[in-house]
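haha ok so turns out i had the wrong file open the whole time. this is the CORRECT one, sorry everyone. sequence first:
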Amino acid sequence: MNDQTKTGMLEAMLFANAEPVETARLAESMRVEPEEAQRLLQDLQRRYDETESGLTLLHFEGDRWQMATRPYYGEVVKRILDTRRNAPLSPAALEVLAIVAYNQPVSRSFIEQVRGVDSSSTVSKLLERGLIEEVGRLDLPGKPVAFRVTDTFLRVFGLGSLADLPPLHDGDPAEQPGEGESEE
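then structure:
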C-alpha cells in the first residue's frame, strides 16, 4: 500500500468522523505504526496549507486530529448552512464561555458569582449547543456539578487548546505600578 492510498484512507476516516480522532486509533484502523500515521497526517496538513485548500486538519491536545473547513472560507460555508440553527451567541453566552474557559472546572454558582446574575438558562443553552459539558462534581459542599468547555468550543473559536486563549491581562501584573507609585 503506497502513501497516496494511506493518505486517502486518513481523509476518508477523518471526513466520516465528526469528532477529533486519536492518531493511534487512525493508525490501528490502517494497520500502520502510529509514527507513520503521524507523518502522513502532517504531510496532509502541509498539503492542505500549501494549496490553500478549503479543508484543513486541526491538531488537538492528546494527539487528536479533525478535518474541518478552513476559516478563510467561513462566509461561503455559512451561506450554504441553515443559519437559524447557528444563531450567534449572546453577550451573556460569551461571558459564561469566557468564565468557564479561563477557570474550568467551575460550578454554576461560581459562574453566577462572577457575573452577578442567574445564569442557569445560559448554561443550559451552552450545554445544548455542545460548547460546555458536565465533568463530574466538585469537592465542595453540596457537590455541585462541574463544567468545562468542549472540543466543539475549541473548534468554533479556532483554538487548538486552551493555551491558545488570549491572556486575561496585558503584561505581568507584578510589573504594574502599585497605588501611589508613579511611572517614570
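Strands lie at 21-22, 55-60, 64-69, 132-137, 145-149.
again sry for the mixup
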